[in-house]
Request: fold
Amino acid sequence: MKNWIVLIILLIIGVESFSQRCDNKDFCDKSLFGEFDFRSQSNYAQVYSGDTVRVKVVVYSGQSYRIFTCAERKLKDVVFRIIYPEKRFKRVVKEVTQKDVPIYEKNKNGEFVLDENGNKKITGTIFANDTIWGRDLITSESVIYDSREAEEKYWDSDVHKTRLIIIETIIPEETRKERVGCIQIMVGRKYETSSQFRR
Amino acid sequence: MRIFLFWITIIFLFVACSGEKKSDQLKKEIQLKEAVQKDANQLEVSSKMVYRVPTPIEFYMFFKNAGGEFNQQKLLAVENMNKYLSSKEKAIAFGMYASDLAYSAVYSQSQNTVSYFETGKKLADDLGITEGYGEDLMNRFKANLNNVDSLYDLTADSYWNVFNYLEDQDKTILLSYITVAGWIESLYQAFNAIEKYEENELVHCIADQQYVVENLHAFINEVHKDKMQEDDVFLMVVDLVKAYELLYYNDENVVMTEEQFKSIKEVVVKSRNLLVK
Reply:
């Protein structure tokens, strides 16, 4: 009976070991999870050495977030960065046109002189530049966390203003042999009450 | 017994050998992928952007924290579930009911939560979604009718399991319809719960969805570029992007004007009315 059970277990393990779903794998350090709910914007991927994966997520104001990346052991030295993408509009000259602009007569008090119809009296014209302004979209990125330099293996933040952030995960190149494996990019929001806490 | 053990051993060896064959096959796939990667598109293959948007439950938590209240009036009627016939319509319905489920769970409306979960389960069965809405989860729902925290947790689990399942199965079109419909429904319920425009946290919450719509649009454009300008559901996202874009031109101290609020609300209501049967 014991041999029978052992064989069944080995059979199941044999089949399961060829599963490729990265979300089902359990290789992250449990101590990283804290009291955060990761069931919203986390991402799982099968990657190769030399890959860079960027995940763009939304973080809401008034919420606390924790973000980290973990990788299967066979993928060595995987690092991640948190990047703030910025978008701003810059006032630029779109077009400059030249046109005739009328010159109106003024009296000694600086008031416009009117003709018999009540319209301002034109004494001549001048050639002037008419500037049409527009806005150009300027985008930039700034790195606010780098796992290679940080003390903690995760990025924690209390968000004061809703924004987009980019989580960039870098899998180093391998000189000897290309490796393939799973990474898990975990984006967690702090639970409202401790009773909601669950891994 | 010995004969039985013998056959068990044979079966195990057979599986192990086919596993080895799978391993060889995987190696060949990796080699092929290497060959593909090393061509001119290497930059695209080795560095890519993935877009994510908050789930309905995360949205409603944000909305609740901003002071939003629960409004039952405009929730979807569960009895209309049978009006959605094609796979596309069922996926849209699933997304919308999932949003109402999340809304109910966040505001601890137990009966609604169970009712919407049951509806979601029937649609999930029709769509062939085998994870996230199993009998086990259904039984856990029924066993926790009075435990609002458990209902919240089970709701979060169900949507997340479905999302990961569809992504793993590469059913991106179903996933896209579910996500878009769910988000439009969430936005609709949020607008519906705000009586009138006021410069407050609730309006900020609505305005902040400009980042969600930006990511959603980028996701669909990445995955369904050929359908972007043809599919009626994806075109709703395009309309919302245009409506929200105006917010970028506001002065720094202006989050959303009343005019912009009304204009975006109009697009949301119109889109939702087109989705509902």
Summary: Residues 32-88+140-193 of chain A form a domain with the Jelly Rolls fold (CATH 2.60.120.380). Chain A has one helix and nine strands.
